[in-house]
Amino acid sequence: MTRLADYFVVVGYDHDKERSGSGSGKIIHRFPEKDWDDVPFHQGLELFCQPGGWDLSSQRTQPSFFVSVLTDIEADRHYCACLTFHETVSMTPKKPDDVETEEEGGLVHHTLMFAPKSIALISRLDYFETFRNCLGIIYTVYIESMNVQLESIIGNLLGSVHIPPPGGPQVRFSVGAGDRQSLQPPLNGAIPVSRNTVAMLFQQLGIHNVLCLFCAALTDNKILFHSSSYSRLTDASTALLAILFPLKYSYVYIPVLPNALMEVLSTPTPFIMGVHSSNKSEIQELLDVVVADLDSGYLSIPEHLNLPMLPDHIYNRAHQELTLVLSPDLQNADCAFPPPTPSPSLQPMLDKEIRAIFMRLFAELFMGYRSCLTIIRIHPEPVITFHKGLFLFERGLSGDDFLQKVLGGMSFQTFVQERGPPFRICDMFDEISANIQETLLQEGRKAERIIKNVQDIARHLFINENPNPQPYSQKIPKPCDGAFTRIHIPTFPRIDCVRVQEVIDDGVKKASMKAQLQTIRQPKSQFVPYGPPAGNITAQRNIINNNARRLEVLRTCVNSIFENKILDARKTFPAVLRSLKSRVVRNALTRELSTHAHQNRAMLESQQFDLIVRLMNCALQEDACSEEHAVATALLPLTASFCRKLCTGVIQFAYTCVQDHPVWASMQFWQATFYSDVEKNIRALYLPPDELKADKPDLNEAFTASPDVVRRTQGLLYDKSALEIAAEQIRIWPAQSEEERNEMISNEESTVFSQAIHYANRMVYMRVPLDISKGIKNVFSHEGESGSSNISQSIGGSDSLDGESGFEEGDSSDPAGSVIRFISKFVDKVCSEGGVTAEHQKSLHQMIPGVVAMHIETLEAVNKESKRLPPIKKPKILKPALLPGEELVLAGLRGYLLPDGREEGTGGNLGGPQLLPAEGAVFLTTYRVVFKGTPCDIQACEQVVIRSFPITALTKEKKVSISNTPHIEQYLSEAVQLRACTFQLMRIAFDEEVNQEKIEHFRKTVNRYRYPPSVFSMFAFNGVTTTNTMLQTHKQKDKTATLRKFASRTFLRGSSRKPGLKNKQMSRKGQKYVLPGEPLAVPRRATLPKPPLQDLTDSRPNSLYEEDDISLDFSSPGSTPSLTTPSFEADRRRFLDGRTGKRWGSQPSILEATVDESEIEIQTSTLKASDTLSADKLMDRPYVQDYQRLGLGSPGSTRQKSTEPFRISEVNLHYNVCRSYPALVVVPSTVADESIRKSLGKCHRQSRFPAITWRHPRTKALLLRCSGFHGKGVMGMMKSQVVQNTSTGTSTETTRSIEQEKYFQSIVANTPVGSHHNTDSLVSLNSVLTPTSEATGSPPQGSESPRKVGGGSSAIYRAMTGIRGSGGKGMNSFRGGQQPEGGQDAKDGAVMPTSAHKAALYVFGEKSQMKAIKTENFPKCDFIPCDFNEVRHVKASFKKLMRACVSSAPLTDPEVSFHKLVEDTEWLLQIQNIMQLAGAAVDLMDIQGSSVMISMEDGSDFTSQVVALTQVLLDPYYRTIDGFRVLVEKEWLAFGHKFTHRCNHTAAHQGSGFAPIFLQFLDAVHQVVNQFPLSFEFNQYFLKFIAYHYCSARFRNFFFDSECERFEYGTLFEDSRTKSGKIGERGDGTSKGIQIKSLWDYIDSIHLKTPLFYNFLYAPSIRDCVLRPYSDIANLRIWDYYINEDLRTGSTYDREVVTKATEPNEENEEGPLLPTDRRIINGCYDNIQEAQLDMFRWLLEEMSHLETDLCHFPMKWKFVWEKLESPMELQSTRTTAASEMVKQHGTSLHKKTTIEILTKGKEGSKSQTQPHHFETHSYVTPTYCDYCQHLLWGLVKQGYKGMKCSECGYNCHDKCQNLVPKQCGKVKISRESSFRQSQTSMEDVIRVTPQSTPMISGGQTTPTYYDHSWQSAQVSETRTHEGYLWKRGALLKGWKQRWFVLDSTKHQLRYYESKEDTHCKGFIDLSEIESLQLSAVALPGAPKKAEEKAFFDLKTIRRVYNFLADSKDHADEWINKIQECL
User: Fold this and answer.
1) What pLDDT digit, counting tens, does each position of 1956-1967 carry?
2) Crossing angle (nearest 10°) for helices 347-365 and 197-205
3) CA distance 916 to 902
4) Which of 184, 417, 1172, 1399 is the most buried (most CB within 10 A)?
5) Nearest-CA neighbor of 795 among 1544, 1560, 1446, 1461?
């Protein structure tokens, strides 16, 4: 019997603590006053009586009732039922009326107020309705002044009313107020009582929301309810707990949370709480809480919260059943003749039906859980564990996050403890769980059967709550209606405590006597039904039958091994290894090995032992990902059974060879396996002897059954299972005597203890390594990667995930201590759970160190003898072919080349043999990392696999973990992954013979060679041949090399210097000690290198060594170098002595420590007149000759003709003006050198002033390049040269440079369009067609005419010239097709700004720099801000591109394809940006005749890309092999692209990351070559060749960052065109061939012998002067350089290696295969382009062979090709109207792209970047897709429905919708005008002549007479209000000024970085605004001088935004504008 109520409390308002109308409560009465012995009183009760706070009220309110839940220290719940009413309180003002002041925010006290008072009952029982009645009776007696004593009622309630336990009879009682009440306990107290709360919860939230709440509670998430009713909060919380049955919620549970305890919501633990809706604003800041609004039915799940949901099949079933119950008419809603709708269940029964569905859900979710229970103790109390991994595996839900979290939660642990015992009191869930599988099969998803079964369970639940069907009429006194509104209501009377206590004591005595007389029958314990198994045994057997053939092969192989038929076993061994991927085969292997182990066949021969160990390793590796560990459990005893004899007295067991698997380091595995064995022993302890003998099944019959299947089916194979035996023992336990009980307890304890000893020994065997000196391998992580060397920024992959590694495993220096700690942790865990005594545990801990020490001593002899075994014969290591001068650094390390994410070589979808994995060795040379080996697959083992890349191209090196790989026989735990920027990836797993030291040495050596201290340590500078003159120069002693001279030159920086000599540059961090260097002699090969002058903004380290050590020594190869001059001279001679072949040390290596280049200053004090740099020595430079070809003048001022407008200036001859510029630059003749030196250079970053690089031969337009402008304006860098603007007279005007203006005027004056009027411009589309008068002229003047084929015409040329005139589907290509804004041409629809004008000079620059320029100072110049690819964006894009093209793992996600990954890289968008800007420059120079200046960043990256590509498109000379070389020499090498810095050549640049700027340019050229195949002399392979070798460091061309550095380092005047260099005959390090130093020499030598780089489709013509390629993403192609590889030769770009790899193998003893006429070519192995020759190459080679056969000297291929006669030329080229229309259309599209660039630059602030709003549209007129340019409407597709943007009119296919650019231009569509613009007169088409469009086709376009690239006037968006506001950040609370735009159309408040910014930074949805008001006070951190009343706050449902306007008026204006939009 239990008291109905434990305490009665009266809580009132505390007037003593009242503050400003808000007070607190205090307990007035509590009964009993002394705590009960079993139930202590709860402190802080007054907070829960008034959760909203104790506040006075000015109005009368009716009484309220709700129930709170209190939790004590023992986690028991107590229910606090509270009834609150209000009493009248007279208030008197605290101050006189005449002195009373109004305080803002204070509460005005009336003279009559109402104070709350609460009466509460505290009980352990949850009879809420009874509590309401009892408290209502007390309130009725008080309010109605009934003649009943309150003391009697309270005393009777606390002392006389006692409730029987669950299952007891109905209780009828009265509290003494004339009432009559009844109370019925439930039948089963374990089943919660829900009344109708569950049905109410579903009515409030809906099915899906409640299921989400259900999943959130099960997965330990935080749940918060909020409502305006406290009772609804309690009911919702109660309902959620009810549907969680049979689980019990174990975390914080507070249904009603007081306002004073709101900080509890920040607790990190899960909870279920409820708060009042008045606190809604406070809970919005909770980021990890699932919030349910009970009033509106809304469920809020945080975005970052990943809420696991039920498995799909269970969720769908539950949702279907809930729909059938809650909406029974839904399934018949669509029936034409619906059957009679069943009447819905009443609310109480509906509640139980919903709960029945959730009980069925849990039964299905936990189906078979009892088969995974493991019992480890029966007496005195059962101890049961749950095998989580086995359950998940058998259910097939191993990867289900929901079930993983549920089984790992505290609620499920409690579930196992309570429901695990096999003999206990059962309830409904046990029966449902046992029959759920059969029930679901019988239902078959039939609604009628489902409803019937659900109603049966619901009926039992209803009976459980209402067991007594007989109604009882209760009598409950209630107050009159409106009693609380009476004027005169007395206060609640004081209660006599003594009288109450007397009544309580009297009631307690009577209740105790009554309890003795009344006996209640308790429910009996019974056997718990076992239920279905976790897995389907029938399905397992079907799987076994399907694998019968594999099992037979396995049995045959294993039998052959044990019968010592090794040859027979090896035949089927690879097939067995492959079959072990199947779990059935792995389990069969363990059974077969157990069979032979029981037959005393454990002692094996050496070969038998090796094969068995390999089988074990393979099985363990394949089973590593499984959490059940069935294979490891079965193999654990076998590892200590199989052994081999090494010598007398030394035996090696199998466990020494299988220790590296991560399963042995898993504590979960050891515990599960231990508990399983303990269960077997406990079962054997109580099993009778006769049954124990018959307990062993036939091993042959159980061969195919897995160990866990055998254990789960013990009920079928054995008489009794462990749980059944335990149930029987628990049943008879009460009848046992004390001695028998003690004996049972002792036996079980001894069993657990003995198993703990046994497992401690097993763990010693598996954890102590064979070689203790190597330590323990920490292989805890099953996945992830570790060991990253951080070569550079990570490219692909991530850091390791150490799954179970604890701190005790971290000490690798003490392996024995690590093992002891690991075992001790295990012993503590299992012994404490198993009830082992403290004495046994202590003895076990003392035993472990001794066992470990003894085992280590035993293994020493085993390790020693095992090393004497003969090694296994392995394939011979194949040595790679080496280049001339290339030497081996590390000999071959044997290993395996593993497959990666590429399909090539794996024999997958691409077909072909399986070449990977390959077994061989990895080599490190001075130039490359090479792997050479043979495939492991027997069918492809005759091939040779080679994969290599230059060591300089390495970008990332790290360790990775690997899984089992087919064809590899040994266990491999980890591998090394090498990724190169040449798009190559190596995953190398080293052989077991390669120890860890060699692997680490390999990694360190790779890193050292990748980042040498100096570029002179790289391969390109090996074997340099020096002259005697150079050596004599270095033998001369410098006059300043003494200490006195050194000190004077170091410290006396202010001394005068000789005229013309270079001043030393000061360092940012202070000048370091420097030594005098060598003079600037020519050549400079022997001088010590000096790094380039770093930019002031460069953050690279100046030195690797920060110490200022003066004295360093180079006496030994590994010692620190000396700064004394003799040591340097010796080092230089040692480095340069290439004739004697002397090297540093015994093997090729780089210096461990060397002097940083930044520490050395090169002096010019000893320069001779013949050694200084002069213009005559630079005349042979390619870029100078190109200047002369273009007619840009000649060097010097004295030799300059007065009529020439340009000259080659020598102002930078000694690199004094700009170190990164060439020595000779082209400038206007009117600009003096002194002006450039003093003024012009300082206006640009790094002094890179505008230089002319190219001149249009027809329009005379100029192409200039420079860096960005300085931020200080015109001459702000030097105040002494500031020229004030006297015309305006204002002192605040920004100063400008007169010299800069003069320079710009000179450019304008020399541009014809700037000196006279030209009718052709870009304002009209008519100018797209080049004037025929100029187009029909001769080739460009001054340009070198390309070589013609057969008189300038060939059959190929004539066949291809009529395709089209230009390319470029560029209508909407630039920046996603954003439409320009402004005026519109009436004829063509070209859109230009209203202020557009034709300028003579267009300057493309950065947005931030263009804003500050005053255009009025630069007449006829136009400054265009534009976007460009920053280096950091290029780096990030390149990393993603490498991951996409060379993935480290195959793609498994079907939604993530290769093209999707490439799209995410944004690489093609960057290529598009380059092509579009270059195309704009082409149109401006060729069509309009305006000059173009590219002024971006530092002028060396993006500027070089655009300028170089522009010249390729404009000048045909640069499309030849020689011309392209000149272009690279001029724009990239001479103008100072930082190759050393961007390619990370040295250790000083290691942290900057690889930046493929030059590669992007080559990719852009590749796109043009792909579209114009007839216009280029070179082919794609030529570009790939340069792309490979610019970062390979084989040649010296692409070293250093400027021409100045090349001059200082002595590489500028190397004879790059020497003819004596030849490709070496041998490549083994002893080659007598000369190493070619220049890439161009290498290309020429190859080009002379073979047409490898020649494009046979090349047809030079006068018509291909200008190219206009398409730049749409749809027209760009992924360069095959990124995705193709050649496994046959490794790299096709080192031609010597290719030649040797394709020659017959000299090492093959059997000799080469005879050549045949037919050869098999595999796309995954051979290079298709080289293996399968085209017609031209084949004919040329055939002619050479025929001439050789005829004993004639073969002619050069080029001579033969040029000698060929071309067919007769046609008199004229036939053109059609359609082809000319295509040409005109392509030109129009290209021009519109240019117009968009200009428009966006000039009026970018008016354009917006909003997404499209597509709608389905039916087209009835000819319309084209604006994305793919294909037809949407036509003769074939009439009436086709496509997608059309409702705002801008963008048209596209349905399939193209997700691919179109995301920016919407908001262009209004006028169908009539658009159609009219698209019409082109046929007469105009016919009048177009072929000469008017001198362009070659760049792609195929369907001819059409419609110009579908319409443009219409752009209408500005709706801007209700806009302006600048200060906005406070949400994270760091900082204030930033933003440009805000209020849009009433889109109902948004958007903000931008500035007024000119076009990209929206964010927006506020006006529909989410809750309030908008001025701030009361100024917020902290605001800008200075801010007005206090200019602050205003905008509150949304998400957060509160703080704004600051310029003034209060502006703030009011913003508030009014926003409120108008609301």
Assistant:
1) 777 788 888 888
2) 80
3) 11
4) 1399
5) 1446
